Amino acid sequence: MPAQKSLWEQLTWTWRPETTREAGDSIVRNLLLHWFPAKATRRSISFGYSFWLGTISAALFFVLSITGLILMFLYVPSVERAYQSVKDIEFAVSYGWFIRALHRIAAQLMVAIVALHLIRAFLCGAYKNGTAANQNRPLNWIIGLTLLLITFFLSFTGYLLPWDQLAYWAITVGTNIASAAPLVGDQMRFVLLGGNQIDQNTLLRFYVLHCFFLPTLVLLLFSWHMWRVRKDGGLACVDGLALAQRREPFAPAKAKTYSLLGITKGRTVHVETSLADFDRLTVDSSPHLMRRLLLVSLATVLVCSLLALFVAAPLEEPANPRVTPNPAKAPWYFLWLQELVTDTTLRIGDFTINGALIGGIILPGVLVVVLALWPFFDRSSVNAVGVWFASERKAQNTVFLIGFAIVLILTVLGTFLRGPSWRFYWPWESWPQSPTRF
Ligand code: HEM
Fold it and tell me: Which of 36, 217, 322, 420 has CB 3.0 to 4.6 Å from 434, enough for a Cys bridge?
């Protein structure tokens, strides 16, 4: 840094580098920015390739962490006081209603956006390795899938905390489905609930999982996820660019070795630096990538805040184990499972086929395993890496989209068309005033 710069200029040089040299330095020397590459391809930072869905997921996680920390100062994880403390946050604490609504909206959006990010990565064939050596994109796909499952569980554990009727019965339905798992189902439910029923033990377990273990796990896996994106040579679309240039001869860059805290070692993949027309295809990460990163994150915070102003977080009557609401529904992102359980429960004479086992455990279990193994069975060529709807992967994308459509239809069915006793009602049919079951 030139000595004549003012303190303000020194503080802001990362964001407003004046030369290419300064732009490179600003990435390498900044503690927060050094995990980004000094140069980024125009394609990877375009809005139309990734839709920045991964970044939006990370921004939502950031919003959740900040609002969650504030809520922790006010919430009491005890069955006697939890409901009242949430009521206080909602009605007595200044702007408590806003922080709670923001937390809730960001949580719902995170589930949806992470799922969309998975869909985007699949449709682009972003789990596939290109031609560079040492890539391991299938591993990053599996890390991502684990992040999705943890996101579901993170949201699910938060659902119980207000300790109202909605929370209590949604968790009852959810954990009942889980208990249908063969051999270990009951034990799993016992460990999760801290007993045979939802009580103080459950609340404390869910609280610790929700506020400490699961967020820490997300943070660790997310760091690994990002580190792998770097080591795999950037986003998958970069491979397409590199491949298009293979026709022009160029000298391969030297590979460097790397190590992460000495735990894992390998050799870098120089996909980006092997681009022949490097200058035309890339821009300095600072300020171009940073500016978009900031813009996407601010837009995420803004959208969540606006939604929180208008959509209040629900709070029903206090939890009452003796009063079952009818219908009792799982959280919306598990309603396709609840629907599947109903649809696979078949009675033939005295014989009943257990829907909780088939629809609640076996089918979703198979779905997760198929998704995790998909990259290893995808035989399409490198031309289909990082390309939206590549013609070579047409059949795969069609199967995937049909699967997604089924999950979507089941979710809509469970959310809007299932009334008391889980009976089917068209949107124009009114639900009978069903007595609550005791
Ligand atoms: C908490 C959840 C997650 C976060 C915060 C996250 C974050 C990110 C970010 C910031 C990127 C960089 C590019 C982009 O913005 O799209 C990325 C890339 C990627 N993510 Fe995720 N991700 C998450 C979950 C997932 C899931 C569920 C999957 C799929 C199973 C996945 C698979 C991938 C893949 C394959 C890439 C590389 C994309 C490419 O090369 O085009 N991620 N992720």
Answer: 420
Q: Amino acid letter at 75?
A: Y
* Residue of 51, 224, 229 to test ligand 1 pocket, by largest number of atoms within 8 Å of CB: 229
- Indicate if ligand 1 lies below 6 Å from the C-beta of 36: no
Using alpha carbons, list the distances in angstroms from residue 236 to 53, 79, 122, 232, 284.
Answer: 15, 48, 11, 8, 19
Containing H/E element for 266? strand 264-267
Total length of the chain: 438
Q: What does the block give as tokens for 169? A: 């019965």
- Each residue of 90-113: pLDDT tens digit? 999 999 999 999 999 999 999 999
User: pLDDT class for 436, splitting at 50, 70, 90?
Assistant: low
User: Which one of 4-13, 178-187, 272-281, 310-319 scores highest in mean pLDDT?
Assistant: 310-319
Classify residue 198 by its DSSP letter: S
Per-residue tokens: 183: 């051999």
pTM of the predicted structure, to 2 decimals: 0.90
Check: CATH 1.10.1740.10 for 36-323? Answer: no
